[in-house]
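Title: Comparing notes on inverse folding

I've been comparing how different people in this forum approach sequence design from structure. To keep things fair, I'm posting one structure and asking everyone to reply with a full sequence. Here's the target:
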């Protein structure tokens, strides 16, 4: 795997519970020590159990991750910010960075009619979309 063009990557979404956590794990697995990868959110909550489960299926451990606030990120340590919001308002990040937007639907849902299998499907689909974006990012 060639070194990524950007060595300090921040993934942002609102709660830092699903998409950005999965993106952080996937990018860390992809780039290893060739990049410093972080994730954060504007309204951090907790890492979604389905994100933990779906990443475990891929051999990635999110069980020790925690949701972080974007306010705790030092902007001078970031080269590129990737926002992952689709239907909600993305958090802002101030700093002289390259900005990318990957609109990926939030796999978490308050819809109580969704079965656990339906939620797992949504999380797997989001993880697949993030992986596809990482591949595309490397091709640029």
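Reply #1:
Here's my take.
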């Amino acid at each position: 795997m060639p070194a990524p063009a950007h060595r300090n990557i921040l993934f942002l979404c609102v709660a830092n519970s699903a998409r950005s956590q999965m993106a952080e794990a996937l990018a860390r697995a992809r780039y290893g020590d060739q990049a410093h990868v972080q994730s954060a959110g504007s309204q951090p909550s907790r890492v979604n159990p389905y994100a933990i489960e779906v990443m475990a299926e891929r051999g990635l451990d999110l069980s020790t991750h925690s949701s972080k606030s974007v306010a705790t990120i030092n902007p001078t340590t970031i080269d590129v910010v990737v926002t992952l919001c689709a239907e909600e308002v993305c958090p802002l990040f101030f700093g002289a960075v390259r900005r990318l937007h990957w609109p990926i639907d939030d796999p978490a849902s308050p819809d109580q009619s969704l079965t656990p299998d339906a939620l797992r499907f949504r999380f797997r689909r989001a993880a697949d979309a993030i992986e596809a974006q990482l591949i595309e990012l490397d091709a640029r």
